[in-house]
Amino acid sequence: MILTISGNPGSGKTTVAKLLSERLKLKHYYMGGIRRQIAKDRGMTIEEFNKLGETDPSTDKIVDDYLVKLGKTEDNFIAEGRTAAHFIPDSIKIFVDVDLRVGAERILKDLTEKGQKSVRNETSAVTVEGQMKLLKERNASDAERYKKYYGIDIADKKMYDLWLDTSDMSPEQVYEKIASFVRSYRVSKDNQKPKSKPKV
After folding, report:
1. Which helix or strand (DSSP H or E) is residue 79 part of?
2. pTM of the complete model
3. Which of 58, 7, 2 lies closest to 167 in space, CA to CA?
């Protein structure tokens, strides 16, 4: 079983991916973490790295090639990344959405209260409105790059098996929704498999 989890910043996709990984005993591959580390190694924030990517496709190709390889060589894992559903089409594809303001509030809280600024390697605003502006710019940059290089709209609901808005949900509630969906999805798929021919 392969799950791909995509979503908007502040939606809680990393938190729920970790919960699913722990409880379903699946490996967790976090593409955002890889990109953030590459940006950091180059002395750039993730926003600066994304901006560079608008004219330099190699910034995305590193993780996208990795996703393709994972899909072809491994099983029983979770791939978390904004293009994961596209590059691993045989996965159970989940998109975790969130209201822009709620996402901004969550990220600002992480960056200020939880001391995640170094880990996230991203620009922090002073106000929620400022953080919302940063998120709009980041989402626009991502959308532009993926449309330009791959011809895809990552916000197209038809790409996904499950689209979940987490604005009013706790991490535990998000986990339960996804875990329940995955269980029913697998049962449905198993029932569609052709029956083996009886022995004669």
Report:
1. strand 77-80
2. 0.83
3. 7
